[in-house]
Amino acid sequence: MVRSLWTAATGMRAQQTNVDTIANNLANVNTAGYKTEVNEFKSLLYQTIQTKTTTSDGAPKPIGAQVGLGVRNSSITSIFTDGALLASESPTSFGLSGRGFFAITGEDGNTYYTRNGDFKWAINGDNSVTLATSDGLRVQQANGQPIVLDTTKYAPSRITISGDGTICYPDEKNNPTPIEGMQPMAIFQFNNPSGLEKQDSGLFAVSANSGQPINEYTATGIERTKISQGYLEGSNVQVVDEMVNLITAQRAYELNSKAITASDEMLQQANNLR
After folding, report:
1. What is the pLDDT of residues 213-265, one digit of tens each?
2. pLDDT in tens, 61-78
3. Which of 47, 132, 142, 148 is in Cβ range 3.0-4.6 Å of 122 for a Cys bridge?
4. pLDDT at site 58
C-alpha cells in the first residue's frame, strides 16, 4: 500500500512542474522572441512481482507481473517555431523569420544568442553609438565585433538593415548603401536549438546538446534567416492550448491526490483490523 502513496506523490510532483511550465508560458505570452516550452514525462522503474514462469501450479505463464513506481519529468523542451511578426515604430526593432538567432556579447564577454530583436542605440563617450539590447548588451556583427557607428559620419536614425543583415546608409541619391568596413548583423543557427541552455532576458548559451553555432554569413548550404526591420517577433505561445493543458494538468494533479487519500483510508482500515 505504501507503494501507491509514493507513486501518486511522484505524479503530483510531475504535474506541479507541468503547471509551473504552463504558467511560465502564459507569463511570457507578450515577451518578444519567447518560445513556448513543453513538459515531457517518463515512467520510473518497474518492480517485478511475478516472473513469467512462476505460477502456483507450475503451468506455463508467458506474461509476468510488474508494477510501475510512478513518473518523473524527463525534459522541458522549447518549441522553436516562428512567432508572428508585430509591427513596431522603432527603427531598431528587428524580427527574425527562420532558424537563426542574433548574437549578443554578455557582461562576461561570452557570446549568447536570442530571438528578441528589440534593440537600442547606446551612446558611447567618443561620439559613437553601439547597437545594444535593452540591458545594454552589445549586438554583434558577423565577425563577432560590436555594431559601432561614428555619429559624426552617420545619423543612427537613418540606418537601415536589409533582409540578409547588411547594414546600410543612404547615399547622395538616398539609396541604401552598405557601410564600408562593416559586416552584416550576425545570425547563427544550431543543429539542435532545443539543446541550448536557457538564460535570463531571453538569452541562450551554447551547450554540448545544441552543437556549435553555424554562422550564416560564412556557412553554405543552409536556409538563410530573414531580418525584418520595424518588426518584432512575438512569442509563439498559443493561449488556448495552454489553458487546455492547464486544465488537464490540474485534473491529473487532483486524481493523484485522490489516489493518496484512497491509499491512506485503506491503510487506516488495515490498522483497525482486530
Report:
1. 999 999 988 999 999 999 999 999 999 999 999 999 999 999 999 999 998 88
2. 777 778 888 999 999 999
3. 132
4. 64
The three three-digit cell numbers of residue 177, written as one number: 548603401
- Report the pLDDT value the prediction gives residue 171, as an integer from 0 to 100: 87
pTM of the model: 0.85
Q: What confidence score (pLDDT) does residue 54 get?
A: 61
Band of the pLDDT at 210, cuts 50, 70, 90? very high
Residue among 170, 168, 172, 197 nearest 180 (CA)? 168
More confident residue, 37 or 271: 37
Per the structure block, which three cell numbers stand in for 62?
A: 508467458
Please report which confidence band the pLDDT of residue 166 belongs to, taking 50, 70 and 90 as the band edges: very high
Sign of CA dihedral 171, 177, 181, 186: positive
DSSP notation for the chain:
-HHHHHHHHHHHHHHHHHHHHHHHHHHTTTSTT---EEEEEEE--EEEEE-TT--TT-------EEEE--EEEEEEEE--PPPPEEE-S-TTBEEEESS-EEEEE-TTS-EEEES--B-EEEE-SSSEEEEE-TTSPEEBBTTS-B-EEETTT--GGG-EE-TT--EEEE-TTS-EEEPTT-PPBPEEE-S-GGGSEE-STTEEE--TTT---EETTT--SSPPPEEEETEEEPP---HHHHHHHHHHHHHHHHHHHHHHHHHHHHHHHHHT--
Q: Report the alpha-carbon distance of residue 138 to residue 108 in Å, rounded.
A: 12
Strands 203-205 and 46-50 come out as unpaired
Say how far apart CA 217 and CA 116 lie, in whole Å: 20
Residues belonging to the chain: 274
